[in-house]
Amino acid sequence: MDPAQGGPPRVAFRLAAAQAGLGHEVHLVSYAPETTVEEFEIALANVPHSALVHRHSLEPAKGLERLTAWRAGRSVEQLIDERPTDILHLHNVWEPIVPAAAAAARRRGVPYMILLNGMLHPWSLAQKRWKKRLALALRYRRMLDGAGALHVLNEDERACASALGLKSRPVIIPNGVFPEEIDPLPPRGRFRASYPQLGDRPFILFLSRLHHKKGLDYLADTFSIVAPHVPDLQLVVAGPDGGARQAFEQQIDRLRLRDRVHIIGSLLGVAKLGALVDATVFCLPSRQEGFSLAITEALACGVPVVISRDCNFPEVAEVGAGEVLDLDPRLFADAILRIVGDAELRARMGAAGRKLILSRYTWPRIAEQTIEAYHNICGVPRD
User: Fold this and answer.
1) What domain count does the chain have?
2) Which end of the chain, N or C, is less surrounded by CB atoms within 10 Å?
3) Cβ atoms of residues 285 and 219 within 8 Å
4) Do 333 and 369 share a domain, yes or no?
């Protein structure tokens, strides 16, 4: 449950809370983060139904545990023995705790489903390619083939999983938001008050891990095209460093944009929502996404979004909530200039995005979809 890992820990906790809110007994097992994360814990406490989730925090993995997750597997097995368990829902693929937990479930005859989080996408598989191929051959393919279902986030991810010839069937279930977390939203101006260097100037918001996958290099090039046309426009970059911050800073220095780019670190809870409310436009030029929580939250907060096709969120363009584009800085720049320069367009896009999320992508609705999938896996009809 480390906030530096971006969306997956937040998805795991919110899905568990939504399921608990439907009346189910939900246990969440994870390694404890090695760093202190009081702010993250506070943010989790504000998630609806969070107090209903039984959390099991294991000692951080060290030594051989980092490779084998043997201790974690035994902990999962012990929990299954102590509590009659209908199903295990595993999150992510490549962490050793995942196959260890899957093996524990197989030993106890408990079915499991795996949320892939985009980790079998060709772009992801190309990172540390030989290591992942070896892992699939030695351990991970058995884990994937033994799943009752593969939880995928969109049609593109379903196709990627099917292309690998896996035996388990993919089930598409997206991510979402809790309506209670975005209603009411923070008042406009609260975020700006915390960052007076912005003043009342318009700003583009990037909100995600600072990782190569997220396209920060495209973002810098896009802003270099936009900046001369809107002299007071700023760029706010928020999120934990995932290894790309230094390269991004060097790029904006080369482009002589340093005085208009604000790198502010992680934002959680109300502070994050405040940034979204005050933003003029949200931009995420990712090379690959499963189902981005950042985009979902931006839409829910009523801010227009400009995203790449590789974010796999075509509904944004379909409902008129923003632009979905090829990874070309000029295309991104044209879209941002159009949105920044038209207040009526921003209002229409913002309203369309909020309506899209609240009608299709809320955690209670998504939790119902997972419960339906569990019944199908277990072969038990719903009452």
Assistant:
1) 2
2) C
3) yes
4) no
- Is the pLDDT at 43 greater than 80, yes or no? no
Q: Taking a C-beta distance cutoff of 8 angstroms, is the pair 205, 284 a contact?
A: no
115 and 219, same domain (yes or no): no
Q: Is the model's pLDDT at 39 over the cut of 80?
A: no
41 domain residue, yes or no: yes
Phi-psi region of 174 (alpha: psi -120 to 50; beta: other; left: phi over 0): beta
Residue 129 forms part of a structural domain: yes
Closest CA to 154 of 296, 13, 321, 17: 296
> In the prediction, which pLDDT does 138 show?
86
Residue 383 lies in a domain: no
Asked which of 76-80, 100-104, 174-178, 266-270 is least confident by mean pLDDT, the reply is 266-270
Dihedral sign of CA atoms 159, 165, 169, 174 in order: negative
191 and 312 share one domain: yes
Residue range 330-362, pLDDT digits in tens = 999 999 999 999 999 999 999 999 999 999 999
Q: How far apart are CA 331 and CA 327, in angstroms?
A: 8
Q: How far is CA 314 from CA 11, 291, 311, in A?
A: 21, 11, 8
pLDDT of residue 275: 98
Residue 169's domain comprises 3-176+363-378
pLDDT of the residue at 41: 73
- In-domain check, residue 272: yes
Backbone angles phi, psi at 186, to 5 degrees: -60, 150
Answer whether the bond into residue 184 is a cis peptide, omega within 30°. Answer: yes
Query: 323: which strand partners?
Result: 306
Whether 113 and 188 share a structural domain? no
Residue 32 pLDDT class (50, 70, 90 cuts): confident
Distance CA 278, CA 186 (A): 9
What is the enclosing helix (H) or strand (E) of 281? strand 281-284
User: Does residue 383 surpass a pLDDT of 70?
Assistant: no
